[in-house]
Amino acid sequence: MDHPQWKRVRKLDLERCSEIRDPGFEKWRYPFTMDQQRAPISNAPANGHDSTISTSPINARQEFVLEELCLKDCAFLTDDAIISISLTCPLLRVLSLSFCCSFTETFAVSLVAGCPALEELDLSYCGVAVTDECLEILGKGLASSLDKLNLRNCVRITDAGLASLAEHALALREVWAASNAFA
């Protein structure tokens, strides 16, 4: 991802790339390996102490112009992947995480903090990762941008979660919630 071309990519479809794991997205945050992050000091002391400095990974962080990202059925991605995406893709408008079942409910916090322009979000078939608390976080954090939300087969959401979403997500026009067991 450190090639200059990646900075211009606006749409990336990685659907069913089942071998993708969190470390691949971590490279989005920190495009250098640990060896590259440690550089020799030019005027090293002769006292035998470590003569390297560490470049802060935060300073090395990069941002992309990515607007659409499809990660459908990338089942092994966790919250760490969402953190990396949210730190590097502030212009993201469309995100599909359908069938990504390894998230915890805290993924929503990272997502709203880093991707405030998110308009379409597909969380269908994410199992137990999507909860009423997630819906409240998404609704409040993306109140003016979230337009479409797919929640099909998200088994932990209830009527209360949908009510909270409706109360806070003012831009929301479409919600798919078929096959959910509402309490």
From TrEMBL:
InterPro entries: FBXL15_LRR (IPR057207), Leu-rich_rpt_Cys-con_subtyp (IPR006553), LRR_dom_sf (IPR032675). Transmembrane segments: none annotated. It comes from Synchytrium endobioticum. Residues 66-168 form the F-box/LRR-repeat protein 15-like leucin rich repeat domain. This is F-box/LRR-repeat protein 15-like leucin rich repeat domain-containing protein. GO terms for cellular component: SCF ubiquitin ligase complex. Pfam families: DUF7885 (PF25372). The lineage of its organism: Eukaryota, Fungi, Fungi incertae sedis, Chytridiomycota, Chytridiomycota incertae sedis. GO terms for biological process: SCF-dependent proteasomal ubiquitin-dependent protein catabolic process.
